[in-house]
Design brief:
The protein is an alpha/beta fold and 750 residues long. Among the domains are: 88 residues, RuvA domain 2-like (Arc Repressor Mutant, subunit A); 145 residues, Nucleotidyltransferase, domain 5 (2-Layer Sandwich), CATH 3.30.420; 116 residues, Tex RuvX-like domain-like (DNA polymerase, domain 1, Orthogonal Bundle), CATH 1.10.150.310; 74 residues, OB fold (Dihydrolipoamide Acetyltransferase, E2P). 49% of the residues lie in helices and 11% in strands. The protein has 30 helices and 15 strands. Strands 6-5-4-7-8 form a five-stranded mixed beta sheet, sandwiched between helices. Strands 11-12-13-15-14 form a five-stranded mixed β-barrel. A hairpin with a 5-residue loop joins strand 5 and strand 6. Helix 5 packs parallel to helix 7 and helix 8 packs across helix 11. The N and C termini lie far apart (75 Å).
Length: 750
Amino acid sequence: MCYNINNVSANETMFKCYTERRMDIAKKLTEEFPSVKPDKVQNIINLIDEGNTIPFIARYRKEMTGSCDDQVLREFNDRLAYLRNLEKRKEEVAGAIEEQGKMTDEIKKALDAATTLTEVEDIYRPYKQKKKTRASVAIEKGLQPLAEFILAQDKNADVKAEAEKYIDEEKGVNSADDAIAGAKDIIAEIVSDDANVRKKLRNLFMKNGEIDTKLVNADKDEAKTYEMYADYSELVPEIKSHRVLAVNRGEKEGFLKVKVTFNEDIAKRVTGAGYLKDGGYSTQLVKEAVEDGYDRLIYPSIEREVRAALTESASEQAIKMFEVNLKPLLMQPPVKDKVTLGLDPAYRTGCKIAVVDGTGKVLDKTVVYPTPGPKQNIEAAKTKLKELIAKYGVQIISIGNGTASKESEIFVADLIKEVKAETGREVEYIVVSEAGASVYSASPLGAEEFPDYDVAERSAVSIARRLQDPLAELIKIDPKSIGVGQYQHDMDKKRLDSVLSGVLEDCVNSVGVDLNTASVSLLKYVAGLNAGIAKNIVAYREGNGKFRTRKEILKVPKLGEKAFTQCAGFLRIPGGDNILDNTAVHPESYAAAEKLLQLFGYSEEDVKAGRISDLPGRVRSYGEEKAAAETGLDVPTLRDIVAEIVKPGRDIRDALPKPVLRSDIMDINDLAPGMELTGTVRNVVDFGAFIDIGVHQDGLVHISEITDRYIKHPSDVLKVGQTVTVWVKDVDVKKNRIGLTMKKPRAKAQ
């Protein structure tokens, strides 16, 4: 950090400081991101500063970044922002202290050495303007010199006599004892404001402190949610993130009293270590002031800081978990080109039905009553659905997993058997998470898409479409409503929204979007675009017909060259004028891609006809570096271009395992320990994973049952949407709980 203490021009000092800060930050980032090559760190900083988006940098600037993926780049960007804010705050604090004429070499060194915003604020604390305190009142009464006299702790000093000099009834100092009491208040605050004391205590609390909880209002906790925290204690460094958040929620709901504890004697000895001398009566007064400062000022503050640090860490873990779960959910492979019947289960109001074609276009809708209720009519429901299946060639039935899902599933499984027996037609079904479907249905977007549909009818469409293209449908829903997080409603909204928006952006751009069919909901997450430009694209498309080339989007209002550079590579135009427009090849590399084709004797027609499957092998035989040099490319970009032009229009999701479709059904009563099943991971949490095994209730695989080897977190092995083999461990029908294991049971000895 820099301070203008010599007669140097302000601009010169500013430039020097800026350069030094950049160097220091780059050095720090190099240390913190070992996966990033040291010579690429400054490149990444420059690319971010130039306004490039993370997806663009990750995809089209691999040579400059060392092929860093989007996740690393986002973490790098977040850390860069933090370090810059830290440096900015150091400058602000230094300036404020200099204005007071209190800057010293010691303070400068402390500020330079500070690595967190908390440390910076600790340094600033003694110089920060405070609200009225007992110490500030005492200072106003002129007792600062007396406080310094006592702090000197001269054995021979007559404190009482000295204190009598400060008696002033007009100022409210009526006796020597009043003066001494005021001086002790000043000393207490001096000790409390000591950055070194706070740092030592904070470290002690974080390493050896305990979180203690007591249950209150137990009679109101009917679900026994907080029973385990009735008389609970755990070391601060050992408490798991999900327990921190559970404790916080219990406290917020009025069921828990929470306290951070640490050995009080040790804490007070640490507090007074730098202040207490062998000064007789003076030292006794300082000791009393130190203890008061600890009890009244330091401990409550440190407790808040420890709780805040735990909450921040736990929130980051929860947000990370949300991020980890959301990405594979959005990236589930689409069930393409299948006529799908969406069924939104219900009792009293009936099951809403929507039939959509392979593109998601609604063909028909209706209501049937196969579930218990005043209008239940199973045979009429079967007749209606058989008609729809026959009329539209329905291939898959997508059932929402909400209320009446189980009864609906039983009905559908029976229906499918009858359809096969009567017509020979194979129809399959899948139970999908309907989390967020009702949110979409009641949203302005839902109303805009289907103005003549009621809320439940829109939900049925969403349930069908989220099977056909999970990304395109789920992107319309607030991620917090999708049901793959923990305590998401307790998170910092701004931080959570930022992270989840990053996930949405990464998913959309890694898949790419069809420029001629994509909704505003999809387009707004394309790198370089926003909601306003996305609306303009759709409006232009509706007014002028389909886009024929990527370059044509430059005619869209408010979409300039910079936005085009960022977004173009992520837009697809199937059947357009240029086959490269249906690939992830960026327009800036079209000339190079054409040179590559010429180099190996191919034409654009060969690309269209799929006659270049041997291109990757020929490039490797020729030599990637040589081919890159002759086409003006770097090797990573060359590899990407080769992969893209071999399969124009490819969807990276197609390579992922398809969802498990069923034609039968199981009940929890059918389960028995040792039974082998195939399931789909629904949600990954800190303590395990919930698996859909084809019964209404998801089973839990505890972290200890995932694998025989040690794993730090379930997400090390499992991800949402993954198909897994599990064995039933135990079943509690009354509590509707299913325990599963992924460890294959050992065969019993004969």
